[in-house]
Every structure is written in C-alpha cells, then in structure tokens.
Amino acid sequence: MYSMKQIYSFYLFLGLFLIPHFSYSQGFQVNFQGQKQQAMGCAGTALQTDGASLFFNPGASAFAKENSVNVATTPIFANVMYIDSATNDVYRTENPVGTPFSAYGLFQLKKDGKLKLGIAAYTPFGSTVQWEKNWIGRFAITRLELKAIFIQPTISYRISDKIGVGAGFVYSTGNVNLQKDIPVQFEDGTFAKAELAGKAQGFGYNLGVQINATEKLGIGLNFRSKVQMNLNDGKATFTVPEGLDPNFPDGKFVGSLPLPQVTTLGLSYKLNDKWAFVLDINHVAWKAYDTLAFDYEVNTTSLLDTKSARDYKNIVAFRAGASYKVMKNLEVRFGGGYGLTPVQDGYVTPETPDGNRAYGTFGLGYKLGEHFAIDASCYYTQITRADINKETNLSGTFTTKAIAAGIGFIYKW
After folding, report:
1. pLDDT surpassing 50 at residue 356
2. Is 361 domain-assigned?
3. pTM
4. Nearest CA among 207, 211, 120, 117 for reference residue 166
5. DSSP assignment, residue 41?
6. Cα 167 to Cα 32: distance, rounded to the nearest angstrom
7. With the C-alpha atoms ordered 84, 85, 87, 88, is the resulting torsion angle positive or negative?
C-alpha cells in the first residue's frame, strides 16, 4: 500500500506537468504556418510570397501586389519511443495524427496601394500524446491532448519602394486535457486516475519590418511578443477508491504559462529569375519560463498548491532554404534547419522529450492559371535525448520521430 506522502508526491508531478506542455507539440514548437516557407526550411521572414507573411513578417505583407486568400493544413505523424535505463524495457506512444492549420486573408483597399489589411488564424501549438497502456511513466502521463489557435488582425504599410512595416494584434485561445494514473489501486488491481481539463487564453502582438536593400537582397526583422496563457477555470476530476475521495476532491484549478517572445532576423537573396535563397535566425526567449505555479481551489493534505523551478533557457535556431523555378508554373523548394532545446538536463519529460534537433524539408508549388495555385511541403526530424528527471526520477532515453506532409491552396485576384 502506498503512503499518503507517496500519493502526494506523484500527484505533485501531475500539477507540474500540466501547463508546460501547453507550449509544445510532440516535444517541439509547431512551425507550420506557411507551405512555401515550410518547404524552404521553415524560413521566410525576408521574402514576401503570399498571405503567410502575416505571420512571418507583417512588414513584408506591405509588398503584396494582389489580394489573396490561402488555407493550408499539415498533418503530423509523430511517435516517441522510450527505453528505460534500469530495465531496458521499451515503451511507445500511440499518437493520433496531428492537424495544425493556417488561414490567411490579405487585402488592399486600392490596386497596388500602400496600405494592406490582413487577418490570420493559425495553430502554433497543439497535439495529442497517447502512451501505451501500463507504461512505466503512467504516473507522469497517460494521455495529453491540447489545442491552441492564434487569431491575428494585421495592418501593413509600404513607406517607400524599399521599406514596409506591419503590426498585428494576437488573441490566443486553447484547451487542454491531461490524464494520468495515481499510484493507488482499486480492489481489482487497476490504478486510480486523474483528469485535468480547461480552457486558456492570452494576448500579444506581432511586429515586422521589411527592407528591400537591392533588387536581389531583402532584409526582414520580426518580433512576436510573449503571450501569457492563463487557465482560470480548469476542472480536476479524480477516479479513486471511495475512502480517498476526501483527499482528492473534484474541483477547479488555475495556472498560467508565458509563451516566449521570438525575435527573427531574416535574409533573402534572389540570384536570378529562377533561384531564391532564404535564411532565418531565431532567438526564442524561453528564459521567461523559470517557475511554474499551480493553484487548486480546494486543498487537502494530498492536494496542495505547487511552485516549482523550471529553469528553461533562451535558445537560437537557424533555418535556411531555397526555391527553384523549373518552369513558368512549377517551383521546387527545399531546406533545413537546426535548433537548440530550451529544456535543460534534469527537466526532460514524457510530454516534451525535447532535445537539440536537425530537420530537412522539401516541397513543390504549381500555378493553375492566373489566380489559383497549390503548394505542398514535407518535413522530417528525429530527436534523441537521454535524461534523469529531477522530480520523477524517470531515467531513460527518448527518441522522437516526426514526419509532416502539408498542402495549401491560394487564390489571388
């Protein structure tokens, strides 16, 4: 039989793991906000291509020559394998397919006007992680499902033939559902369970400047602010033996997490009518996430409010790619990138088994006449990270593999 101290310790982890993973998808941020950019290594801050510039750089949107509407989705097939260091037992996730999407509308009040108006909706965070039954880390997580949607009205203005600026207001809304086992057993040998669910929201902004230094060289600077996601009305539900009901009362909880600010310097170079190259350097201020506080409406000896150090660090990521116009209506794109992880040793968890990662991308674009076009992209990454978690003592190696194949449709007029 487990002591109440053990029960509390495991449930403490439940609180500690809920909010952090609202900021991740399968161990990494989702960077699928534009099919052209995705195919070129997820870079495109300094190259105006379509409505996706509303996300990558609102200043570049000022150089759009047409009205446009584009929608896209990028199904993600990702799974994690965990090898326990003590037993060498292997456990895997059984994740469903993730479906991040983006939608952009970019409009001008008059033809070739300097002022552009835009509206964007995209999903920078969201996934479902489902571990196999009775895996060794079931007291940390059995299932995590989260969704987040950013909505961004934007205004862009072309100051001159060389300089454009833009700004967007960001409203973020999302929900999360977390399920875990509790180390208390029923008479039939099954474990007690906990489920935490709730909705969160936050606000921020997106600023951008585009400088077309020459006919070939473009320079873009984008700043996406921190978004403080607040979960104010969550619901905690426990399925425990009847005698423990007073220790684990169903009730409400609150929590918050700062989604970090991101500063990006982008360069683009159009070698000729066929070749274009892009480079993005991202600085992500994850250090803002140093402490996690978690507050239950009703406290007991087994269910106390928590405050825990997370000690994330700021990171830098590099993304680069190229496009080649094979013929008038067909374009080939490719690229890749490398990013450092904000998760320091001792803090790797089964919800976000993150590590330094490299990835590759490829894609095609095809124009169907004057107004309509189709873009497609493919992304692949593999991440391996060994760690001993300071709070759960879960010790082993996580290997994450992810492939994402996206498709988008654009209409211009």
Report:
1. yes
2. no
3. 0.87
4. 207
5. T
6. 20
7. positive
Q: Is 146 exposed, middle or buried (0-12, 13-18, 19+ CB in 10 A)?
A: buried
Whether the Cβ atoms of residue 237 and residue 188 lie closer than 8 Å to each other: no
The boundaries of the domain holding residue 59 are: 4-77+97-325
Distance CA(11)–CA(192), nearest Å, equals: 11
Q: Decide if pLDDT at 269 tops 60.
A: yes
pLDDT band at residue 4 using 50, 70 and 90 as cut-offs: very low
Q: What is the pLDDT of residue 233?
A: 85
How many CA atoms within 13 Å lie on the side-chain side of 37?
27
**Structurally, how many domains does the chain consist of?**
1
Residue 18 pLDDT > 70: no
Distance CA 334, CA 309 (A): 40
Domain contains 406: no
- The CATH number assigned to the domain holding 53 equals 2.40.160.60
Task: Say if 382 falls within a structural domain.
Answer: no
Distance (Å) of CA 371 to CA 154, 330, 365, 412? 23, 14, 14, 5
| Per-residue pLDDT tens digits for 179-226 | 999 999 998 989 999 998 889 999 999 999 999 999 999 999 999 999
Residue 18 φ/ψ, nearest 5 degrees:
-70, -60
Across residues 5-30, what is the average pLDDT?
A: 41
Residue 295 in any domain: the answer is yes
Structure tokens at 314: 């700021």
d(CA 379, CA 404): 5
Long-range contacts of the stretch 268-275 (C-beta < 8 A, 24+): 268/44, 268/46, 268/47, 268/217, 268/218, 268/219, 268/220, 269/216, 269/217, 269/218, 270/215, 270/216, 270/218, 271/216, 273/325, 274/324, 274/325, 275/322, 275/323, 275/324, 275/325
